[in-house]
Structures are given as structure tokens and as C-alpha cells.
Amino acid sequence: MGTLSVFLDVPLVKKADIPLDYYGEDPHPQKVLLGHAGCQTDAGEAWIPPVVQRILLQISQDPTLNHEYLPELGIYEYTRAATELAIGKESRALLENRAGGVHTIGGTGALWIGAEFLCRWYKPRFSTPTALYIAKPQLDSLGCIFQVAGFTDIRPYHYWKPVSLTLKTLWGHHKLANAPTGSIVFLHAPEEIGLKPKEWEAVAATMEKKQLFPFFNIESQGLASGNLDRDAWALQHFVGQGFELLCAQSFSRTFGLYDELAGNLIVVTKNNETLIRIQSQLGRQICTTWWCPSSLGARVIGTVLNSPALLYEWKLSLRMVVERIMLIREKLKEKLRILGTPGSWEHLTAQSGMCSFIGLQSSQVEFLAKHKHIYLFENQQINICSINSKNLDYVAQSIHEAVLATSLGDYNLDLEGVDRS
Amino acid sequence: MGTLSVFLDVPLVKKADIPLDYYGEDPHPQKVLLGHAGCQTDAGEAWIPPVVQRILLQISQDPTLNHEYLPELGIYEYTRAATELAIGKESRALLENRAGGVHTIGGTGALWIGAEFLCRWYKPRFSTPTALYIAKPQLDSLGCIFQVAGFTDIRPYHYWKPVSLTLKTLWGHHKLANAPTGSIVFLHAPEEIGLKPKEWEAVAATMEKKQLFPFFNIESQGLASGNLDRDAWALQHFVGQGFELLCAQSFSRTFGLYDELAGNLIVVTKNNETLIRIQSQLGRQICTTWWCPSSLGARVIGTVLNSPALLYEWKLSLRMVVERIMLIREKLKEKLRILGTPGSWEHLTAQSGMCSFIGLQSSQVEFLAKHKHIYLFENQQINICSINSKNLDYVAQSIHEAVLATSLGDYNLDLEGVDRS
């Protein structure tokens, strides 16, 4: 047997989530990670709605449940209820049997299966290859899914002006208005973007005119405004306008079940016959990728969504989280105002939901990591839930010092290796 | 909004598992499905080891467990124990840190991630494109995974002579001996194929000489002989010989947890540094396909494999299933002997494990479905566990009639649509 590996050329993948590693290795007692993937309680623990824990226990004690393979499209009661939650129970698309869900391995699984499907079957006959528009910073985190699926012409657009952190609908709108006819537009987490219905209407009108195909991503419906329908307004508007679309839906954040990866790929099309053809193709893709979805997460979510009493309880839990998030946003803004930190911090309360663009420069992010043991991701998105009553003062004071140090020029930034593009 | 769908060209995928549908729709009280995916009890219910049900309950009541995302490579305690189970705790490859596992969404997920990895990174520099050998009937069921992953030169080989159902090692061996240097050989379920150690040694020697790359698939380790190490003899021999290899490992059958999809992709390579590079690439693939694996199945399996007492109990359960399977094989053979059914039925007891080539012609399979309400798959593989004390006599009698009817020529076979290739 030869001693040389046939895998000599395989390169090492550098890990992207370096702040997480730095945070893990930092022994400082006051260290803070502002980039948790999910909801945290004020005690700094992973949040899970009480109803979810109860149903988990109930399912484990159910003697009628078996553990046989699910159908490749998953649990129908779950995908049906999930689809209704997103596009509205009374949606004409549902009543006309031309909207349906496909149970996937989490939101990423829905994105992957959807991206692969579009790459293979979306043929608008206008542009070859099809251009795909994806917002920054989702381009960094999710762009690779579309790239691996086979998209070669991936273009960024912006919801937010990088400096003032105000909405730049008009700019993004302009970009879409000039997109090649038939391009695909990936619309991320509409519930958190902060566009108003009027602005979404304008975006939809442009997209209709240019025959652009919408691929929505709904990661935390209910965690922006606390109202499930309000958070899905944009998606429901597009469906109401008669668009064909895909929507990757994830429940990890709203149910606190990150490790069970319950996702749903919603398909809305022109008629029932097309829906069936599309679902059959998605089923085939699933068979070759993971055979069928895993069940526990979908069983819990399906149970909650299909019971009016449990649904009510879950909605209450969501509302409490949203109130906590708004309170933290207000408190942080107020602390920075009292400290007299230079700059406007209005965006903290103008945005809503768990994730937020904090609005610091790269040098300030680096200052926080190096001098204050506070870690956030390069893309400037922080998880508001990572801030709690124990670390709020420290975080505000540290941001204040970071802004002062860098704006006064007494912080000698080591630019080596810092990407300024 | 136009009324024409952009998905007009998407074809409907015809479902492959038609016997399952026919069985489901058949109202006949004596109907039998000989193609269950998993282990069945004698009462015709899905089998699950008692220890698994206990641990499921225990996990649901554990207050220290959280539901945060797992790392992309999954639960280390699970992949480590699973890898040890397959290649042996004392394997030099493990002691030298050049063998490791990657937690996947079931066995199919392991196959998919492995196939995609090989397609991208396996460059033996001998043959372009790399030929992939895959045994019939796995070609029908799993070939599409490799095809979608990008393999274009997929070739079949046979373990069994189609007519006599005796092992045809020499023939398969001859085929491999003539394979292009550097080809990949997919070795399915070595525990069920029935090759003897001497025959595996010869296959390994040929593969070493031709520098063929082995990709093992272990679906039911322990369910062939009842002895875990004996069932993995071939894999352990290849590892011991210094081969670099991949192995997709699945626990659905042996733990009865089909709906939780716990898989493991075992990588054995030349040194630790190569293993780390390969695992980093597999991690990247996982991030774009399902983000991270789901946890419940792996938590249960990891708990059992890492506890000597629970492991002992699980092994006992496996042994009981194997004894039941051997008993059914013997009883069925004996019934056919007493009935005087033409042909040799020795292969029923010469093979071992849950799956078996039954050795009927297509016309006989069709007779069983049409006249006896007994359904099996086109590929002639039946699940021995689908036979129980209630249906054994009926199945034997029906097989007898099917063989007689077709060999006497009084069964007028409708050949239309039947694939005779």
C-alpha cells in the first residue's frame, strides 16, 4: 500500500466564525459574545418557549408514535400548518391548491433544495445564465449555497446604507429596476428588514414589471413585531399579487429547537398541477441528499401550530421575547446618549427583531475585541439578545470607548489583514 | 401578473416505490408487503430495541440538555463511538488519529456528502473521469446519488449470479481486476453480501494492486451474524491493509430510529493532517447543505455506544432479531421443500441478514402481486422481517403457486411494460 494520500490536494477550509473561537478561548470574566445564533434569556441561556419543552416530553411518552421513515416530503400536518402560518390561512394560493410546503432539514436545507431546484429548472428564457440578487450581508453567509448549487452570476444589493444605517430602499429598488429580466431576487427575512408596506409594494411592482422571481427567506417570523402576520406582510403581499415564488422557512429561532432543524420550503405557483410536478422534483432531490427529513422538530412544531390553545401560548412567548428585545434596544440607545457617544444611534430602535446592524467601523469592532473582550462578527450584525442586564452597562461603556478611541485617532489600528473592501 | 408558469418544463417524477402504493391501496385482508424498509417484529410492527425507548425518554427529561446548534461535524462522542464500532476500537488508524467520523443526516446524507466530496477532490491522476463501480441492485437505488453528485462513468458489477443466486466473487473479482487504475468501488453492506474473509482478502489484494478506492456502505452492522465485529470484518480488513477509504454508516435499522436519521461518514486516510483537511471540506459541504446535523438520533446512539451496560443490552437485542431472521429463513425454505416447489431454495439460508434476494423471475413477482396480494420490489430484494408467523404459510404457498404457474406455462404473462433487461 503506497504511503502517499490520494487527497494531497485537498485544501484546509479556514473557519469563518473566528469571533466565536476567540470568545471561547478568552478567559476574561467580563467577556461578551454579541453574535449568538439564537435567542438568549436575560440570564444568558438559550431561550426555549415553555410550551415546546412540554410537547417534547409529551412526544417522548406517546406510545402510539413509531419511528419509521417519514415520506420524502415530510409530515404533511406540519408543512401545511407552517405554510399557512407564512402565507396566511385564507390565502387564495392555498385555497386553490397551488401553494404547498416541503419538509426540509432546517432553513439551510430549504435554501439548498430550493437553490438546486432553481438552478436546474428555472428557465425564464430571458437571461442565460440567470442572475441572482442577494442582499449584503446575506451574500457572505448564504451566497455560497447558491454558488455551490450552480449559480454563476450572483450580484449583491443593499437594504441599508452602510454609513448612516438608514433604509436605502430607493437605491436597492433602482438596482432591481435595472436587473436583467427574469433574474432571481433573494429577499431575506422580510420581517426584520424594516421596509414599510408601501415600500414593499413598490418593490413588488418593479419585480412584476421586470418578471423577477422572488426567493424569500423567513427565519424568525414573529420575532420582529411580535405579530406573526405583520412579520410576513411582504411575503403575503407577493403571494396575493400572483407571483410564483419559493420561500425557505425556519423555526429554529422561534421554537428554540436549533438542534432539530425543522425547515419548510414553500412553493407558490400558478396551478395545482405545476405544484405537484415541482414537489415531485423536490422529493427526488431529497431522496438523493438525505432520503427523508428528521421528525422530532416538525412533530413539536406541527403539534403547536395545529392546536389553537398551544398556538396561543407560543404566540404569547414570542411577544415576551420581542418586548425584551425592544427594551434592550432602547436601554442601549439611552446609555449611549447619556455617555455622549458621538454619532446617531437611532438605528438601534428604528430596526426591530433579534439581529441588528450595530453601526461600528471595522476598527471599532477590532478595538472591542482587543481591549474590551467583546466579540462580534465582521458583518456588523449583532444579536440583541446577547445583551442582558448583567452586561448592558459594560457593553455600552465599551462601545463608547471604542468610538472615542478611534475617532480621536489615539487608537493605532493595525490594518494588516483587515479587509477594507 | 402573467398566467403562464415559469416552471412549464418541469417534468413529473414517477414514483419508484410502486409496490408500496399498490400494497397501501389493496383492501385484501391477507395482503403482504415483502419490502419494509426496516426491522419488523413478529406482530408486524416496527421493531425498536427496548434500550432505545428508555434512552429517548431519559433524554427528553434531561434538564441539562440544551437545543442549540450542534457543530457542523456533529456530536464528537457519537462519531467517535460509531467509528470505533465500525473499524474497531484498537484499529491503528484510530490510534494514529488518521480515522474519524462526520455526523450526517442518516446514511443517505453520508453517501451524498461523500460522493460530492470524491467528485470534487478525488484525483487519482490515472483516469479522467473516474469510473465508479457499484453493485446491482444498489445501482438502482443508490446510483442516482453518485450521478447527481457528478459521476458520469458509473459501471455495475455483481456479487450474485442472477439465476443460481450463488456468490459470483470470481466474476465480480475479474471485473474489478480489469477496472481502470484508480477507479472507485462502492462496496455495499459487506455484512450481508456473504463473502468469506478469504474472498474479501482476494478482493482487497486486487484493489490494492489496481489502486482502486473503496467506498463502503454499512447499513446494518450486527444484523447479519449477530456479531458486530464479524459483520464489519471486510471494512476492518481494508483499514488494516492501509487503504484510504470512506464509509457511510447508518444506524436506522439497528436502533429502529428511522425518522431521526443518524448517519456517520467515516474517513480513513494516511495521516492526521490529511484527515483534518478532509473533515474541514466536509464541514463546508455540510454548512451549505443542512448547516449542522440533527441531534436526537445521535444522542440516543452515542449514549448507548458509550455505556458498556447499555451497549451490552443493545447487542442482546440485535442477537434476538438475528435469531428470528434465521428462523424465518429456515422455516420458509422448509415449507417450500415440503410443498415440493421447483428450484433450489438454498440461497435463503446461505444468505444472512434482513435483506434477501428471493430468486423469483419478474413474471413470478407479477403473479404474486396480481393473484396473491403479495408485493415486492422489482429488484427482487425482500425484507425477511416482513414474514411472520401469521403470514408465513400464505407467503410460502403463494410462492409455490407462482413458480408452478409460470413454469407450467398456464400463466399468461402480460409482458407490456415489464423490463426484461
From TrEMBL, chains A, B:
Keyword annotations: Aminotransferase, Pyridoxal phosphate, Transferase
Keyword Oxidoreductase: no
Cofactor: pyridoxal 5'-phosphate
GO molecular function, one term: transaminase activity
InterPro entries associated with the record: Aminotransferase_I/II_large (IPR004839), Asp_trans (IPR000796), PyrdxlP-dep_Trfase (IPR015424), PyrdxlP-dep_Trfase_major (IPR015421), PyrdxlP-dep_Trfase_small (IPR015422)
Top-rank taxon, per record: Eukaryota
Protein EC: 2.6.1.1
Major enzyme class: transferase
Keyword set includes Transferase: yes
Domain Aminotransferase class I/classII large: 32-399
Cross-referenced PANTHER family: ASPARTATE AMINOTRANSFERASE (PTHR11879), ASPARTATE AMINOTRANSFERASE, CYTOPLASMIC 2-RELATED (PTHR11879:SF6)
Entry similarity comment: Belongs to the class-I pyridoxal-phosphate-dependent aminotransferase family.
Description of how the protein assembles with itself and partners: Homodimer.
Protein name, entry field: aspartate transaminase
Organism from which the protein derives: Gekko japonicus (Schlegel's Japanese gecko)
